[in-house]
Design a protein that fits this description.
By secondary structure, this protein is an all-beta fold.
């Protein structure tokens, strides 16, 4: 079955960087559209970024210029490089297989001094 396992979260100071990873299995990763979504404390889930099978990417306005989504189809891996992090980026980050709406268990990102 589909499995998505996120990692790479942690505590970082404002202005810092983190790289999130998502290990995918149970489906043909290279042909599917993948996204990162996040959920801040007490708020609803927010879409962050999407990558298509041809490598095209899209970003939420809040992520543009600071985050970079990428994928390694040979390794079935999805990444999110996050730079210039802000306290409002705090939340649980999930990778999502868009066509089926399946996401992993998430990884916590906390941006705080």
């Amino acid at each position: 079955q589909v499995q998505l396992v996120e990692s790479g979260g942690g505590l970082v100071q404002p202005g810092g960087s983190l790289r999130l990873s998502c290990t995918a299995s149970g489906f043909t990763f290279s042909t599917d559209i993948m996204s990162w979504v996040r959920q801040a404390p007490g708020k609803g889930r927010e879409w962050v970024s999407r990558i298509f099978k041809d490598g095209r990417t899209t970003y939420a306005d809040s992520a543009k210029g600071r985050f970079t989504i990428s994928r390694d189809n040979a390794k079935n891996m999805l990444y999110l490089q996050m730079n210039s992090l802000k306290p409002e980026d705090t939340g649980v980050y999930y990778c999502r297989l868009d066509v089926r709406g399946i996401r992993g268990q998430g990884t916590q990102v906390t941006v705080s001094s």
